[in-house]
Amino acid sequence: MTWLAAAGACTGLGIVLVIAELWPAPPRLDAALARIHAPGPAPQPGPGSASDRLGRWLAARLARTRLAAIPRADLALLDRAPETFLVHKLAASAAGLSAFALAGA
Asked: Do the domain assignments include residue 13?
């Protein structure tokens, strides 16, 4: 019975070690700071996709209000545009609202 407990402990340890090796490493601080202080991407000419237009429309409307706080420093670390963040936030809120309606049905 003792060997069975030891085998289970070794199996659990092996699983933990495999997961720890597959887990992505945290970003390097110097690279993240360099991305923050780097100049932003150049504006793209043309109308862009529908999500880009929706993001620009949301950013223009929400810039005058205090409804959506945009974490610009965090987005700069992730190399994401604030417009994309707003579109994802809108999609997540629509999915959350529709989930209650689907759960009730």
From this structure: no
